[in-house]
């Protein structure tokens, strides 16, 4: 650097400072140097954790390898197999997995945005070799066996669905729906590979619910499958909140800060009201449906999404379980406290302390759990002329409890009051 230029930089940087500050400059330099190094260390740690988390959670290449190997050997079949393994028109893109055993990727299928989901064995249980993964995955496709007739397969499906959904008069209709879904070449028959694929898929709770609730407006559409990999429509916004702090940063980022940022990034209140109405409609749809009642066992904002039109879509159905499954889990279960009688995260029944066994009815209904979620999502930015009534309705809603069989009328009344209150505010506007 020329001498004249160095003098100019010196004058600009140091002359405006007071003599006292100039005398302290070396100490200030050291302080800022330490801060710079601290920033570098934190950034390096975040990058390392991000990489470690990605390598642990994102193993889509294993899914692709296993599925395509089984497909080429004729073990499995599916409407998406050719696109995934031969034509390569179905591609995995951004990893969205939150569990190493449940792979979730955004993707493209013939230029259409989709979500691709696949289950794989826990890596701890394998020796790391590809062959070991393939051997363990083989157990997924061991039923039905060769020689099983169509009538026997239908009986297998009926018994399975009865165990999962309870005794429902419409189970035969659901069996026919599953058979039609399995018959990908529409020849009126189900091959062994087709039967193995649909049987493996039905073991996945979310897939079973998507089939049972496929006609419901707020359930993502099932687009295809291959083996136990399945493809759904992509929900534009896969969470009520746009900002999700990674688990390894939650200790560093105050909850109040992340909440404030999410409030700032959230859609306008009328659009949030529209999303809320859709979520309440989903609660109605699963309360008493064609195939029984379903319970939301983790009312997380990261399981509820919405599309570009602000229509609610359940981005993740893994935390929704049939009442029959929850009852079966609780029946005869030993307990000391109510916490011992919990299915999932928050489907909790009471503990009968005299016999030390769980009762089988969940105390808090779906609506109460959803309203706890909505208190944060809906109240901030609410119109001043509506806020008082809205707070009152939500307060009533979150305190709902008691056995579902004893509170059906009260449940419906609270839900309809809340929907009516919101709809009156946004009806006949651009947001309706």
TrEMBL record:
Residues 23-181 form the FAM69 N-terminal domain. It is a single-pass type II membrane protein. The keyword Disulfide bond applies. Residues 1-20 form the signal peptide. It is found in: Endoplasmic reticulum membrane. The chain crosses the membrane at residues 30-49. SUPFAM superfamilies: EF-hand. The keyword Disulfide bond applies. It holds the Pfam family PIP49_C. One of its GO terms (cellular component) is endoplasmic reticulum membrane. Keywords: Disulfide bond, Endoplasmic reticulum, Membrane, Signal, Signal-anchor, Transmembrane, Transmembrane helix. Gene3D superfamilies: EF-hand (1.10.238.10). Belongs to the DIPK family. This is Divergent protein kinase domain 1B.
